[in-house]
Amino acid sequence: MTEDSKQDDMSRDMSLYVKTHCGTCVAGWTRRDSDGRTVYWCLLDQQQPWPRMTYCSRYSRARHAGEPSEPEIAELAEAGDPQQH
Question: Three-state SS for 25?
C-alpha cells in the first residue's frame, strides 16, 4: 500500500470519536484535502489519529474566545444561571 492510498483510507474511515473529539481537541488540527474530506492531525502524536480510535487519555476540549471555563460553568450551574438550562 502506498503512502497516498494509506492516507486516503485514513481520511475516509475515521471513527466517530476521531471526528467529534480529535476535531475539537486542543492538540488537534483539522484540514481539508483537495476532495473536500476533513483530515485530522494530532499534535501530540505528530500524525493522524488511529482511524478506529475510541478513547484518548490526553483529550482536552478546546475553548473558544469568551467561552466559560469548566470551573466557571460549575459556578454558574450552582448559582442557577438561567443561561445554562
Answer: strand
